[in-house]
Amino acid sequence: MQNPQASSSPSSRCRYHLALTALLLSAILSSFADAFTPSLHRQKSRLLLVNRALSSTTATSLAVLSNPLASSDLDQNYGGLFTFGVANNIVPTDGMLKLPHHERYKAISLQAVDKVAERHPALLPHLHDVKLAGMVFPFKASPYYVDELIDWDAEDVRQDPFYRLVFPTLDMLRKDHRSKLEAAYAEGNPKKLLGTVDEIRADLNPHPAGQKDLNSPKDNSLTGVQHKYSETVLVFPAAGQTCHAYCTYCFRWAQFIGDDELRFAQKEAHSLFRYLSQHEEVSDILMTGGDPMVMKTKSLAQYLEPFTNPNFLPHIKNIRIGTRSLTFWPQRFTTDDDADEVIELLRRVHEVGGRHVAIMAHLSHPRELSTSKVKATIRRLQKEAYTTIRSQSPVMRGINDQPEKWRTEVNMGIIPYYMFMARDTGAQHFFDVPMARAHKIYSDALRSCSGLIRTCRDEGWIGRPFFAKYHPDAVWFDDLVPLDGMELPWDENGLPREVPSTVY
Ligand code: SF4
Range with the lowest mean pLDDT among 49-63, 291-305, 466-480? Predict the structure, then answer.
């Protein structure tokens, strides 16, 4: 487990090293780049022809291989400049927060990883790994995540949970896929390389969820609406089908490499509202993505503003927003140009519209919650927007296969909600945690928290399943009889039994 302070100290320590390494850096970079892409440089003219015939994402990946020093894309949702390397500089004064207004989101794409290596030389030995793996898996990071969360001073940065969370590695590929990709790369034939990438992607079960076919309303205007549970409708707003960064373990990874079959998105809100008006059994809307919080407030308001009117679809009581932005780009709620507007919108949906607004926050690790920027965001969402924050995340090996996170969350007023298992897609084998172990992590997490989130009184019995024979007239525990070979957690007098020493 990493030092909780590590989120702020690595950047500053790196700056000391940076002065010494800066003189050497350009020479190292150019020789490294030459070593990395000799054959592709030779085939530059052929590559341009190939690129025209390929999907933009794959072509982008190739451009990275052929031109490692290319500059990064601007994310279409944001503009302006970002000042790299800023430390956490939110200063609480008399209960008010003074927030700097100079940071603008700018996505770090695969083309920009060399720039990251300039700031964080620990990345240099892994550039080839990241770039080649990044041909198969989508890569995007936020400056905040890269500069303020990854512990670049770690002995092996690849073991840092936040590095693993956003930087792809060839270890995410099965051995046969990896050999195939490396062989295709060594051959220096771009067309073959791209074909190999496509073959590998197709082998990684890119469509595990079947969301287009399952529970979709039979209405052509509802291209991004899924009526999954009788009381809950999922909405995938078109402008929210990306994220501030991409998780290496994302089960929707194929959506981010331009897979048209996964373009499941709602282009406008009116047909959604029409559908909801015909379904009074629906009480909840879950806005999801991607990440709806990458949307500018103006776009988000198309979906949420009507709910500031208590008479509008009054059967809709709960609005849930699934988002990773609290820790991928906390500035979304504090210093972005329209941060105040989004807080105000959420507040009015709650206070004026009378709806319960829940932020379903994807949070992976307690260290994510340690920075002043994230703390300020959480405070604003709770105290100014009056939202409830619930946390959820998959349990991923090497990232968060530890129980500590929930305790931190409870102490911040966040309600732990779900733990998910790695799905059968992408790099499942690299991140998977066996169910028995996940169950222990879940039980230990529950046990580590106060009764505020526990629905089980006796902590010794958390995570120890037991069964009793069905007894329709039982009114108290000691009326029940255990199934053969099982023990109940209370004795014949209804008193807690001593906890068995081993279960796992
Ligand atoms: S935030 Fe969610 S949707 Fe976005 S990459 Fe991560 S897991 Fe996938």
Answer: 49-63
pLDDT at 77: 28
Q: What's the CA-to-centroid distance between 371 and ligand 1, angstroms?
A: 21
Which parts of 244-288 fold into alpha helices (H)? 270-277
Domains within the chain, CATH numbers bracketed: 4-72+107-203 (no CATH), 225-461 (3.20.20.70), 464-504 (no CATH)
Task: Name which residue sits closest to atom 8 of ligand 1, judged by CA.
Answer: 250
Q: What is the pLDDT of residues 152-205, one digit of tens each?
A: 999 999 999 999 999 999 999 999 999 999 999 999 999 999 999 999 999 999
> Is the pLDDT confidence value at 499 over 80?
no
Q: What tokens does 73 get?
A: 């894309």
- Alpha-carbon distance of 465 to 471, in angstroms, equals 18
> Which residues approach ligand 1 with their CB closer than 6 A?
243, 246-247, 250, 252, 289-291, 324, 362
Q: Which helix (H) or strand (E) holds 232?
A: strand 232-235
- Residue 72 is encoded by which pair of tokens? 């990064």
Query: Which residues in 459-485 are b (16+ Cβ under 10 Å) and which e?
Result: eebbbeeeeeeeeeeeeebeebeeeee
**Which uninterrupted H or E stretch holds 209?**
none
Query: What pLDDT digit, counting tens, does each position of 71-127 carry?
Result: 333 232 222 222 222 222 233 333 334 445 568 899 999 999 999 999 999 999 999
Whole-number Å distance, alpha carbon 479 to ligand 1 midpoint, is: 48
Ligand 1 atom with the smallest distance to the CA of 249 is 7
Collapsing DSSP states into helix, strand and coil, what is residue 392?
A: strand
* 247 C-alpha to ligand 1 centroid (Å): 5
Among 16-20, 215-219, 248-252, 442-446, which stretch is predicted with the lowest mean pLDDT? Answer: 16-20
SS3 percent helix, strand, coil of the chain, rounded to 5, is: 45, 10, 45
Predicted confidence (pLDDT) per residue in 391-437, tens digit: 999 999 999 999 999 999 999 999 999 999 999 999 999 999 999 99
Structure tokens at 158: 């690849």
E strand or H helix that includes residue 356: strand 356-362
pTM above 0.90, yes or no: no
Pocket test for ligand 1, best of 362, 393, 421 (most atoms within 8 A of CB): 362
d(CA 325, ligand 1 centre) in Å? 10
Cα separations in angstroms, 20 against 24, 32, 164: 8, 19, 27
pLDDT (mean) for 291-295: 98
List the residue whose alpha carbon is closest to atom 6 of ligand 1: 247
